[in-house]
Amino acid sequence: MLIADDDSSSRKLLGHFISKMGYNTQFAEDGEICIELINKSPVDILLLDINMPKKDGFDVMSYLAERNIRIPVIMVTASNEIPLAVRCIKMGAYEYLTKPLDIERLRIVFRNAIKETVLQNEVQQLKKELRTKEVFRHIIGKSGAIKRAMEQAMQVMETDLNVLLLGESGTGKELFAQAIHQGSRRKTGPFVSINCAAISSELADSLLFGHKKGAFTGANSDHVGFFEQADGGTIFLDEIGDMTSEIQAKVLRVLQERQIRRVGEKSERSVDFRVISATNQNFARAIDNNTFREDLYYRLEEFPIGIPPLRERKEDITILASYFLDQFCSANNLGAMQISENTLSNLGDYHWPGNVRELKNAVQRAAVTSRGQVIEKLVSSLQTSRQASVPQEPSKPVDQGAPDVQEEPVARPDSTFTMDELEKAAVQKAFSNAHGNASKAAESLGISRATFYRKLKRYGISE
After folding, report:
1. Mind giving me the DSSP string for 122-186?
2. Structural domains present in the chain
3. Displacement of CA 220 from its chain's centroid (Å)
4. Which of 18, 316, 320, 342 is the most exposed, fewest CB within 10 Å of its CB?
5. For residue 368, with 0-12 CB atoms within 10 Å meaning exposed, 13-18 middle and 19 or more buried, which class applies?
6. What is the pTM of this model?
7. pLDDT tens digits for 117-148?
8. What gap in Å lies between CA 353 and CA 421, rounded to an integer?
9. Which residues, in sequence order, are bridge partners of residue 410?
10. Which pLDDT score, from 0 to 100, does residue 143 have?
């Protein structure tokens, strides 16, 4: 209980009776101290005198209303004028009492106010849970790791802080970006998603900021750039770590000034957007290697959120597998299917380097290839698929005079290899077949050029 009254004898008398009722009390001798105490610690009930120095009771009520602070307020005054009572109730007061106070009535008012507070808290908690389910409806899981990530997203979504999503490929970073947008006050605005790795330096100005008709050859009409498209909403910069240094400088300027200039125009346009970015890169290493600007990094990571890999949320694997199976069967009219209990129990033994995306692909592939309504094999078919992408060559006699060359692993019935070894061999073979052309090699593997370059670097394959 917080008692705000400028009369010291009233404060002492009320404090005595309230403490006998079993409540803890705090005291404020004016409206300013009352507001300070409310901001310092939670208050369950406020007993508020109307006439006080510095800030009166109405000033305190206005402060609470402006900041949506919900506290049952019992207004106390020596006046029994009806217009004054009406004004108090209109401002949100729970009750209006006149001095001298009837202690028994005060006891009843306190008891009822506390019941209402408990009820309001329960309603707010239910609203929060419903809102969480709605905003994160596409993010499946109940593990502690994924819940922590969602809680962090809930904390920041109603602000305009720039969010940096950190996590491996396939963990669902874009789903989190969409959820944060849908839970923000910008949810009625656009959500513009950009793959930064796909933007070349030559087209960056036109794609990001737009261009005017006739600005260059082929500019047959005005074009609105990505940042302007996101005006009033959210721009999602995916794979931000793959952005070239030249483009990083352009993006930094827009984040600082919130203005863009279309190619071919002389004047600048103000834009209002929120930035959510995502990467699977190690920024500390990138900054040390001068491949990513440190000043841009600090602009982007106002609120970082780590999205856990699937191997760190193993209790979600069976839930996700069943969800993806039901979703795929429904969309493709395959009838009801299920994954055997034995197969489900073994899913946690696999490393899942491709995370949720890999699990989804594995489930869909198993649903198509299954001969019955029960899937008995899932991970084994995935491993077979990975091995099939590695070319097999007949064994050759050992040439003692040949130089020491690292042979690529070949899948054989009597031997096993790690997924990394198999993937490295596939990357080496594709790069060799493409005669060192990264674009062709990436296309043959069905991955982006940026992803292919990352794998070259990861496995130490010389370009």
Report:
1. HHHHHHHHHHHHHHTTT-----HHHHHHHHHHHHHHTS---EEEE--TTS-HHHHHHHHHHTSTT
2. 2-124 (3.40.50.2300), 144-211+224-308 (3.40.50.300), 313-388 (1.10.8.60), 419-458 (1.10.10)
3. 38
4. 342
5. exposed
6. 0.62
7. 888 778 877 777 677 778 898 999 999 999 99
8. 13
9. none
10. 94
